[in-house]
Amino acid sequence: MSTARRATIADVAREAGVSTSTASVVFSGKVNVADATREKVLAAAASLGYAGPDPRAASLRLGRSGIVGIVLGGELRHAFLDPVTTAMMDGLADALASISAGILLLRDDPHDDEAPPITEAPVDAVVLIGCSGRTRAALEIVRQRGLPVVVIEGDAGEGVPRITLDNREASAAISRYVFDLGHTNVATVTLPLDAERGRGPLTPERVAQATVDVTLDRLAGFREVFPQAPGVMADASLVDEGMIAARTLLTDADGALHADRPTAIVAQSDLLAVGVIRAAEELGLRVPEDLTVVGFDGIAADGLGSLKLTTIAQPAVAKGRAAGEQVTRMLAGEPGESVHFTCVFREGETAASL
């Protein structure tokens, strides 16, 4: 049984009475052609059932898939509950639109025994959001394939362009703000310290074994101001995780408020800060009168009623866009460059003088 031959650009050109190159530029849109010529070519294409160049042929010709792999840590469902991640992905997608690249989401899951998916994924480049030890170990294979690699807030080794944020300095700045309000009995709620995640108190042993750069940098900034302050690690940047951590810091085993509870809590994300505030209110504490709470990210945080969160705002969309721009440069044969961003303090209504 024969299959009808798919019309080609040469067939369209012949039907329209123009050269093949003229017909090609009508579909590429890269060169202006006369309106009358464009209409003739499009009419010929319609009559032949030609919908445009076959992207598979272009991929084979260029030796590329047209796909950029994005490696996210942990569960994807958790990642996309975080507005910071979605904002970064928006910026990344905007930048990659200029080269019509698709996006393939890959998990960096430490529970799998198989090799990380980036070693075999059919992609033209890789963007890492953070860089676990497991992923870094797999990068040698990725780089042997000649794939450009860019990392957002992580260290993927020498020669890999980095999109960085002043996490330590920003964390120190908002912690100093809390200190200047007169608070000395202060605690922190951190993001996960390693790819294994899990909740628990911040112990010297856990911090010494930590592998997540963002968490460590923000903790280091906090420790500059409150070197001996206690803290709790959350399992993810989620409101529910902030609530669980806050109860650990504010209550005893029986659920009663600690007599010597913290007067302020510095959270490493706005979602965690929202959870801390909700838990405090459930315990009968007023924010900021009884408890000062500050966050980090500058997202549009829901669930605070009329309260405006005091936080440090980061340029999440710009970070993603910068990563996409570096991928675009590298795929064009240009060297990639590292780009650094800074945060901005945003005063709200959740912090008050002691």
How would you describe this protein?
With 354 residues, the protein is of the alpha/beta class. The chain has 3 domains: 45 residues, no CATH class; 128 residues, Rossmann fold (3-Layer(aba) Sandwich), CATH 3.40.50.2300; 148 residues, Response regulator (Rossmann fold, 3-Layer(aba) Sandwich). The chain contains 13 helices and 13 strands. A 6-stranded parallel beta sheet has the order 2-1-3-4-5-12, sandwiched between helices. Helix 12 links the parallel strand 9 and strand 10. Helix 8 packs parallel to helix 10. The radius of gyration is 26 Å and the shape is elongated. The protein starts with 8 loop residues before the first helix and ends in an 8-residue tail after the last strand.
Q: Mean of residue pLDDT?
A: 86
Kindly provide the name of the CATH class of the largest domain: Alpha Beta
- Spatial strand order of the main sheet: 2-1-3-4-5-12
Number of helices: 13
Largest sheet: 6 strands, parallel
Structural class: alpha/beta
- CATH topology name of the largest domain: Rossmann fold
Q: What is the topological layout?
A:
Layout: H1 9-16, H2 20-28, H3 35-48, H4 55-62, E1 67-73, H5 76-79, H6 83-96, E2 102-108, E3 125-129, H7 133-144, E4 149-152, E5 162-165, H8 167-180, E6 186-190, E7 200-201, H9 204-208, H10 213-225, E8 231-233, H11 239-250, E9 264-267, H12 270-282, E10 292-294, E11 311-313, H13 316-331, E12 339-341, E13 344-346
Parallel strand pairs: 1-2, 1-3, 3-4, 4-5, 5-12, 6-8, 6-9, 9-10
Antiparallel strand pairs: 7-8, 11-13
Helix pairs in contact: 1-2, 1-3, 6-13, 8-10, 11-12
